[in-house]
Design goal:
51% of the residues lie in helices and 9% in strands. By secondary structure, the chain is α/β, with parallel strands linked by helices.
Length: 397
């Protein structure tokens, strides 16, 4: 039985259909003994409790002749999406739930879901019913011809469409698509699609080069694969969200920009360090703005003005890094306060290192601009390296 919270979403959980034999004569229940599923459908979710029942029922309806499983990868949704998926799984062995604690991100969720699967074919579909699940059977048939590595559901191929998008969202999608041209092959019309199916061998070939940044896993796969992926696009009409709120926000483009940076220079400089440095550069502007306001206009003594500006800037940098650089590991509540304290401590030491090194090099060489640059660089590297471990506990450190 579903919980009362799940029933309040006005969803109806249908009884799974009786197992039917497929072309090889093995029923779905028998496959639990004789072998794993042919197709794993990865569904990344965050607050999709109002959609998962309907999506699951539609998959059942449209893949009756396919041995499939659905792997919901949930980023610890406050609306208890993971609990509802587990209730569905209790009555249907083809449904599984991976609940991630303390990390977020569509791309990384898709990768974890694929890694948990043994199926030879892997599909990614959103949990909000905006993608056309009826296309999955055709995608699988195309891959089984053996001439393709990946099949993409395309909003921009002839016969496809973007539905009821407003002008702003349509423009953002076009800009992102143009920016991706350095990563994806010519002829791919919808590199921003989040709806596709690929061979496991194609995923395995790209796996160790994937950035897992943001929401655009498809562009990441194309950019990370050697040799180039053989692809085909199938048109579909993007549908309105079935229930819940859109996850698209102004930070989506930031995450996508970081993906582009990672694919361009990530083998030289860690993309988090690039983001950390961008935040630091913005912080310089904040520092001078606060200093000017206090010293020039409020007539506060310089030493006090400089001290206040320094604390404000460090706090500003912490907040922005928490939202942008470490969005997938964002600190909240008491952890946010602990992180703020450790960040300020680390950056305070970094500031002292900056001043000390710059002063020493200036006295040694007499070239103030080189001394200042070296001090800034040393402070930035220190701040990044220490806060990466101390403040956000980045597991890649």
């Amino acid at each position: 039985m579903l919980s009362s919270a799940a029933m309040s979403n006005a969803q109806v959980l249908t009884v799974p259909p009786e197992p039917q034999a497929s072309a090889d004569g093995i029923g779905n229940n028998d496959r639990a003994v004789h072998g794993g599923p042919e197709l794993s459908i990865i569904v990344p979710t965050f607050n999709e409790c109002g959609n998962v029942v309907e999506l699951t029922n539609r998959i059942r309806d449209h893949l009756r002749d396919v041995s499939w499983e659905m792997i919901y990868v949930d980023d610890d949704s406050p609306d208890r999406t993971a609990n509802l998926v587990r209730e569905l799984a209790a009555s249907d062995f083809r449904i599984r739930c991976i609940q991630r604690i303390g990390r977020r991100g569509l791309s990384s969720a898709c990768i974890e879901g694929m890694l948990s699967s043994s199926a030879p074919y892997l599909a990614v579909i959103d949990g909000d019913l905006q993608h056309d699940e009826r296309l999955l059977a055709q995608m699988l048939a195309e891959l089984k011809t053996g001439t393709l590595d990946i099949v993409v559901g395309s909003r921009y191929s002839d016969g496809g469409g973007i539905g009821d998008w407003d002008a702003g969202r349509a423009r953002m999608s076009r800009v992102a698509g143009r920016l991706s041209r350095t990563l994806v092959p010519d002829g791919l019309r919808d590199p921003m699609s989040g709806f596709f199916m690929l061979r496991r061998s194609a995923f395995d070939g790209a796996l160790r080069n994937l950035s897992a940044i943001g929401w655009k896993i498809l562009a990441d796969l194309f950019a990370s694969s050697q040799p180039p992926l053989r692809f085909k696009e199938l048109p579909y009409e993007f549908r309105p969200r079935h229930a819940g709120d859109s996850k698209l926000d102004s930070l989506t483009l930031w995450a996508y920009a970081m993906l582009l940076v990672d694919k361009t220079i990530g083998h030289i400089v860690p993309v988090r360090f690039v983001a950390f440095s961008v935040v630091g550069a913005i912080g310089v502007g904040v520092h001078f703005a606060v200093l000017t306001l206090l010293f020039r206009f409020a007539k506060t003594p310089f030493v006090q003005s400089q001290a206040i500006a320094t604390v404000v800037t460090m706090s500003f940098n912490f907040v922005l890094n928490n939202v942008l650089t470490y969005r997938d590991e964002r600190l909240r509540g008491l952890q946010w306060l602990r992180g703020w304290l450790s960040f300020n401590l680390a950056c305070g030491i970094g500031a002292a290192m900056n001043v000390g090194l710059a002063t020493y090099l200036w006295q040694l060489s007499g070239k103030w601009y080189l001394a200042a640059t070296a001090g800034i660089a040393a402070g930035a590297v220190w701040n990044y390296a220490v806060t990466k471990r101390l403040t956000w506990h980045d597991p890649s450190a």
